[in-house]
Amino acid sequence: MTAVTVRVPAKVNVQLAVGGRRPDGFHDLANVFLAVGLHDLVTAEPADELLITAAGRDVASVPLDATNLAARAAIALAKLHGVEPRVRLHIDKDIPVAGGMAGGSADAAGALLACDTLWGLGTPHDELLSLCAELGSDVPFSFVGGAALGVGRGELLTPLAVGGTFHWVFAAAPGGLSTPAVYRECDRLRREEGAGDTVAEVPAPAADPALLAALREGAAVALGAALANDLQPAALSLRPELRDTLAAGTAAGALAALVSGSGPTCAFLAPDAAAATRIAAELGPAARVAASPAPGATVLP
Ligand code: C5P
Questions:
Q1: Which residues form the GHMP kinase C-terminal domain (predicted)?
Q2: ipTM of the complex
Q3: How far apart are the CA of 136 and the centre of ligand 1, in A?
Q4: Atom 10 of ligand 1 has which residue's CA nearest to it?
């Protein structure tokens, strides 16, 4: 085999309920993931040693060393099978980097599937998902796509039914936000409010039944009313100008607006595809439209 290309989707969290900080530093979550039709492509080709290259959007901020999550995925898979990670990974980026849309996680999931296919390993699905979970909390979802409820630190997935197509607009913001910094700010704000930030002090996170019903029914208005992100106050505290972006999308006709994951990308739910195109045009050239749900990591023919 000469080259394998895998397509992987971005995600938006339609609900991100954040519980208390656990002793291991992670937070318990009820994380309702929806894969959206913005994609990275990860291509694996035989090489003498592990090599990473990248092209596309925001490519200057993609690390090209062993800290790249795609490189770590290739190394972890090779180690599991006792082989050397002799592969060139090329990442064609279209998902905003450090944007709260799981771009790095998508690349890890894509690299795992591309290397597994290139090397002819046939790793069982559940073993690939365990590797995904070791690589990062959002990587298992990037691998499976569709829609899912993630609990634990977000890695324990239950697939969710989606009864229609939802249309989104995404406004990427320059600079990116560090996920650990946003969680730290969430903890700080909770302590400042006197609520405390530990598992013992914060109510256990739970999925909202109204939101799950809206997904199941494909009901955009009801989904818009139920969108919720507990990390949003922290992202807005670190990047106050995002308030203006959220307001601009709502003024342009979005049903609802929220920060995507840990941000700084803002997500707008549109009533239909035509409205999404109109809202994106009003928000400017950095805005993108995408439909959901989208399939997970897929080997391209
Ligand atoms: O798992 P992942 O590497 O994506 O997590 C990045 C960082 O986000 C963690 O180091 C932690 O600071 C924060 N995080 C968290 N609770 C989660 C998931 C992520 O605190 N459930």
A1: 212-283
A2: 0.97
A3: 7
A4: 180
Q: Is 218 annotated as a binding residue?
A: no
Q: What are phi and psi of 236, to 5 degrees?
A: -70, -35
Choosing from 40, 58, 107, 138, which is the catalytic residue?
138
pTM above the 0.90 mark?
A: yes
**Using CB atoms within 10 A of its CB, is residue 74 exposed (0-12), middle (13-18) or buried (19+)?**
buried
Instruction: Tell me which H or E stretch contains 267.
Output: strand 266-270
Element at 5 (helix H, strand E): strand 4-21
CA-closest residue to ligand 1 atom 14: 26
pLDDT value at residue 117? 98
Could you tell me the distance, in angstroms and rounded to a whole number, from the CA of residue 106 to the centre of ligand 1? 15
Task: Identify the structural domains of the chain with CATH numbers, from first to last.
Answer: 4-160 (3.30.230.10), 166-292 (3.30.70.890)
Pairing of strands 228-229, 4-21: parallel
Residue in the structure block whose two tokens are 């969430």: 186
The identity of residue 58, as a single letter, is D
Residue 61 pLDDT class (50, 70, 90 cuts): confident
Query: Phi, psi (5° rounding) for residue 218?
Result: 65, 30
Nearest CA to ligand 1 atom 3: 136
Cα 137 to ligand 1 centroid, rounded to whole Å: 7
Residues 6+ apart with CB under 8 A from 260: 12, 13, 99, 100, 101, 170, 229, 266, 267
